[in-house]
Design goal:
The protein has about 350 residues and is of the alpha/beta class. It is built from 16 helices and eleven strands. InterPro entries: ATPase_a/bsu_AS, ATPase_alpha/beta_chains, ATPase_F1/V1_b/a_C, P-loop_NTPase.
Amino acid sequence: MDNIKLNVELLRQKVKNLTVAAASVGLRPATVSNLCTGKIPLGRAEVRTLVALADLAEVSVDDLILRGDETEMIETGIKVIDLFAPLTRGGMIGLVARPGMGQLVMLGEILHRLNQQGCVTMFIKPTDLVPGIEDVLSESQHICQTSNEVFELITGLQDKNNLILAADRQNVINGEIYTLLEQLNDVGVPTVTTLLVDLRGDAVDDVEPYGPLDTLWEFDAELISRRMYPAIHPVYSTSVLLEGAQLEKEHMHTQQQARKFLRRYRELRFLGSTYGMDKMPTTDQDIYHRGLRLEAYLTQPFLTTEAFTNKKGETVSLSETLEDVKRILKGEVDQIPVDAFYQTGSIAGL
């Protein structure tokens, strides 16, 4: 029963002045408040309490219960990821890219940032030691040779929360990852956040490169050709957090607007190069120029590449990202040159 919780957002939408309404039907306001905050686990709630709350909201009891398939976002401070394809805690995340597109730099950066958050990071060392693999090895707290070694490592840890495992796609194809996760589940280990890369570059051509994923980060060759790093495709990359509408409303609304905006911008980019920007309506020209700013804003210098780029790595909170993106879409920063947005952090730093 630990994997269920009260659908507080639905309850508050349906019932105005919840505690007052609860008292009117004989429920203790303190009990309802504690259920909403999680202080009282939902599994310990009396059935009559849930029935009364469901009647107040005019929904079924099942509608008031969020079950264990709900997932949670891990904020990374990387703008394009947090906005368009959030990292799912305990989920399976797949990076899809051809060799040389920056996926190993991205994986190393993610591990670096998760280390800073107090996570335990592990990497199953692949047999293919491709260029760039050192970025991942240097940022992994534990380098394991086999999945059995990972199992022994995890079961020997006192704190088994916030576990991050990185591995090559070959460990998915041979079934080792799924076997490992099942074994860990059998001994009561909490879910492990699993990051998967494709060192051979075969995943790009597969419809389901890793099987079911919770988050997909797809790299874009067109962005790479223009040195727009990190080259995560803002339209094709996605997360179950978005599909399940499990994020805050502001996040959902902003990413939907930005994604729609960038789709149109990409169309206009092609049309403009073919027919000329001067032939476009003014509204389309505005979309195009703001799209340029948004695309440049989504680039970001990494913490792990400071020595190579001579640029200070930037971390941008999700709240800052959402506010900045809304300002760009509204045209509030049209006066700032496009180049100023490239490889920077938040707009406040411009």
